[in-house]
Amino acid sequence: MCTTPSGLNSIEDTSDDGYYAGYMDQDCDIDARISFLKRSLSAIISSNAVDLDKTTLKIIVYPEFLMRGTRGAYPISVFLPYLSELLQLSEREDVLVVIGSVLTAEMDPSMNSDFYNTGDKLLDIYYGLHGKEQGRMRLHNLLKCVDEGGLRKANYNDSFDDILIKTLDYSDLMAKQIVDNRCYVVSKSFCHTILKQHKSKEDFVLNTNDQYPIFLQTTTKYAEISEDENVNESVFSYGGLRIGVEICLDHKRKRLKNAGVSSLDVQIVPSCGMTIREDSVVVKNGFVFNCDGEYVLKSSDQGVDGINCHTSLCVVTESKLGNAETLKYNELKNDCELKELYRNDSYNIHYYPPMDIPKKA
Fold first, then answer.
1. Domain that holds residue 96
2. Which three-class secondary structure state does DSSP give residue 90?
């Protein structure tokens, strides 16, 4: 499903002047999203495409930014009363649900930040230089190039591009509003959480069009994570499997590999703008799975498309990445109750066939 900001003409316009979809009443918003999770999980488990044998572990993955609310993150005091309900979503030991991700903050967003209007000012200049429509598209591409580390290769010659990058980087350093971007992994009697480490230039919108404070790209940062916390949070064991999780940009930045993690059985990448990167894979014999909420793939060989989203499952044998596994079943679900919560009021369920962990050659 698509979990990008809403109010855009195209999926390519993410991260400039969109808005966070949802209900203004934050309790209502959280309740509605948990209700969606329950409906979708029920639809999955009741499907004939699912092997309900208890010896088969079912791993169900949702994309990044599944729960963030209209302000870009929920106050932790508002979210906490719902946490137990979220952790009890799985009613079976053989069903592992990866809820990636939920955004929370200790404090409400503030209008007093020195950087609160930075994004708007930069956009005003950028639109003035390039023309509004061209500027919108180019800004999105520019932000992607910054995350990819390949700005010069993209032939951006305007000096303002460099100013934008430096301003956003400086804002990341000076931002005072800390947001937790957290993935929850739960079964009937298990819970593990993973904090995202690296903030993408696309994680939050730049605009201030709303009449109340929201978390913006120029005002937020993620909490520091120590080396010990990095490994302990990112990797866990379940059902005899060693599983690692990297949220979106953490995968490209090789969070697991850089932490010395190796020989995982399963590597999971919930994302909103990412694909499986071969040089980031730390599975020896097993699987790498990506569930993305931002865009469709250029090639069907890389995975399976949904509505402004995709999934991809690759087999790894002796550290060699194989082609994406064939999808067993693709089910489109229309859900009018999603109209206020996400970019689209439909979502896809991608079912992959049961598979054994590859054995050593």
1. 16-104+180-199+223-351
2. coil
